[in-house]
Design a protein that fits this description.
The protein is of the alpha+beta class. The protein folds into two domains: about 90 residues, no CATH class; about 100 residues, no CATH class. About 30% of the residues lie in helices and about 20% in strands. It has five helices and eleven strands. The strands form three sheets. Strands 1, 3, 4, 5 and 8 form a five-stranded antiparallel beta sheet that branches. A hairpin with a 7-residue loop joins strand 9 and strand 10. Helix 1 crosses helix 4. The protein is elongated. It starts with 9 loop residues before the first helix and ends in a 31-residue tail after the last helix.
Length: about 250
């Protein structure tokens, strides 16, 4: 059975908003000089930014690691750069890979300064906090590096039309496609456009929330299936880090 699935692009999202609000649909939305069409394009990009803050989308979740090592023995702390597309960490995904233990953090400022003043830091795992655009580690290991593994939410939501290997955070070409659901982005863009123009946006907002609640409710993980009769949760031993070997089977 043949299928024909139309993907939302930046251009088609603007054209769809035009149809829904009764505005003439442009042939070249990205290059249009019509101020209303330009405002719709801004609404689509604003929708991307707002959706990024509203949910931990699986399509934007990225796994990464960082090699943590000090510059000299006894270094108190050291900051490391994060990926250019980094938006924020996914909670409780930070691990010290060598010890197979969770990395301690984010540590509050008071506790951080207490550790520095008392010349104390945990030795079993990495201890971290965010400052500015860097992640800092207490007493980074030296000379052997430790791997800091984590997941984060990426700002790179748009796939470039000319070069699909380029990911970016804003759309500016008609053929630019979205990692997230284009229909959802278009609905939020329409709601924002109507609000900016001073029109009643309540119905458009309800349409967006209906689809958003459906998408967010389905965009989630699931528990691991266990065929054993007894169910259990494997515990992490803070001292020996016991690997999972089929607990509950």
């Amino acid at each position: 059975m043949p299928f024909q699935i139309t993907e939302f692009t930046y251009g088609t999202a603007i054209q769809e908003i035009c149809k829904l609000v009764g505005h003439p649909s442009p042939v070249d939305p990205a290059g249009s000089t019509d101020t209303a069409v330009q405002q719709m394009g801004a609404a689509v990009n604003t929708a991307l930014e707002q959706l990024l803050t509203m949910y931990e989308w699986q399509d934007l979740t990225t796994r990464a690691s960082l090699s943590v090592v000090g510059l000299a023995p006894g270094e108190v702390e050291r900051g490391f750069d994060l990926p250019d597309d980094f938006f924020r960490f996914i909670d409780q995904t930070q691990w010290s890979s060598q010890s197979a233990l969770p990395a301690g953090g984010p540590v509050g400022n008071a506790a951080w300064m207490q550790s520095i003043a008392g010349n104390y830091s945990p030795i079993l795992t990495l201890t971290w906090q965010m400052r500015g655009d860097q992640v800092f580690f207490l007493s980074p290991p030296f000379p052997t590096a430790a791997t800091f593994s984590y997941m984060y939410l990426s700002k790179a939501q748009v796939i470039d039309a000319a070069d699909p290997t380029i990911l970016k955070n804003r759309a500016n070409q008609n053929g630019d496609t979205f990692k997230l659901d284009g229909f959802l982005i278009m609905l939020l863009g329409r709601s924002l456009y109507l609000e900016w123009k001073g029109f009643d946006s309540s119905a458009a907002t309800r349409d967006f929330l209906t689809v958003y609640n459906s998408r967010a409710g389905a965009d989630k993980g699931a528990p691991i299936l266990d065929l054993a009769r007894r169910r259990g949760v494997a515990l992490i031993n803070p001292l020996t880090s016991v690997p999972y070997t089929g607990f509950g089977s």
